Amino acid sequence: MKAAVVAGLNRGARTVALALGLPVLLFTAWWVLSADSTTIFLPPLSRIVEAFGQVWFSDVFFRDVLPSLRRLAVGYAAALLVGVGVGYLVGRWSVVRDLTSPILAYFRVLPAPVLIPVLLVAVGIGDATKLIVIASGAVWPILLNTADGVRAVDEVQLDTAAAYRLRAWSRHGLILRAATPQVFAGARQALGISLIVMVVSEMLMSTDGLGFTVIRFQRTFAIPEMWSGVLLLGLLGFGLAKVFEIIERRALRWHRGATGREESW
Predict the structure, then answer these.
(1) Rounded to whole angstroms, how far apart are CA atoms 75 and 231?
(2) Percentage of residues in the chain having pLDDT higher than 90
(3) Residue 132: how many CB atoms within 10 A of its CB?
(4) Cα separation of 155 and 159, whole Å?
């Protein structure tokens, strides 16, 4: 028992070291190399860190960061619901796939920020516009990966479900569960896209949020504060990715067991 605990702690320490080793090294190099910088656009990292504490550990966090996180969560959740639902229909029935293929092929290559001028006229500058832009940018990886996952479900599983005369909803659940690994693959891509599109939408059409605050600092030549916003966005993206990895690892534990893959995270 003790040996197992020690082995688990060692494995956890190794995982943390591998995850943080390179970022810490790069951060240290940035600190040392920028220490004597006199360029206004590339201030010393020590000044950026100081500005980070002054800006983001204040009411700015509640005024700008929390609204951004709320928009990100709502837009990403909407993309998940639409992407999984429509992706299931497209992957499950060839008729739906044939009917929707041309329009999906068109909209999937349309950059989400292109919709901003249209939405500004049609919807206005409120949160609804930003949520639509975030969802429309994030939905495609989820939808396409879900469709591919559903189409790739083993026919043996479907035949077994039919032989046991499972009800329709049970069969749909079986298919969706088998497609879960690809659904998570699309959701992982969509999370990064959601963060990017959120920042772009706030830079172009917002009066609050992280993107708005960073662009405001840039326009007022508050360069260390601007860099602190960039640093915060990087930390936010890193943290969200790690949280997603934990959820994915737990949700797909059955899949790694079924395929014989060992725990590597």
Answers:
(1) 23
(2) 45
(3) 20
(4) 6
**Nearest-angstrom CA–CA distance, 162 and 177:** 16
Question: Could you tell me if 153 and 178 are in contact, meaning their C-beta atoms sit under 8 angstroms apart?
Answer: yes
Looking at residue 205, its amino acid is: M
pLDDT confidence of residue 168: 66
Longest pairwise C-alpha distance within the chain: 75
**In the 8-state DSSP scheme, what is residue 34?**
T
Please identify every stretch of the chain with a pLDDT value under 70, giving residue numbers as ranges. 1-10, 12-13, 154-166, 168-169, 256-265
- The dihedral built from the CA positions of residue 91, 92, 97 and 99, taken in this order, carries a sign that is negative
pLDDT tens for 93-139 read 888 888 888 888 888 888 878 888 888 777 777 788 899 999 999 99
Which conformational region is residue 208 in: left (phi greater than 0), alpha (psi within -120 to 50 degrees), or beta?
A: beta
pLDDT of residue 265: 43
CA 145 to chain centre: 15
Q: How far apart are CA 120 and CA 97, in angstroms?
A: 32
How many other β-carbons are positioned within 10 Å of the β-carbon of residue 4?
A: 8
- The two three-digit tokens of residue 60, written as one number: 């700015």
DSSP 8-state symbol, 112: G
CB contact at 8 A, 196 and 233: no
135 and 79 in contact (C-beta within 8 Å)? yes
Average pLDDT, the chain: 84
Nearest Cα to Cα of residue 135 among 180, 51, 201:
201
- For position 65, what pLDDT does the model report? 93
Helix (H, G, I), strand (E, B) or coil at 126: coil
Output the pTM of the full model: 0.84
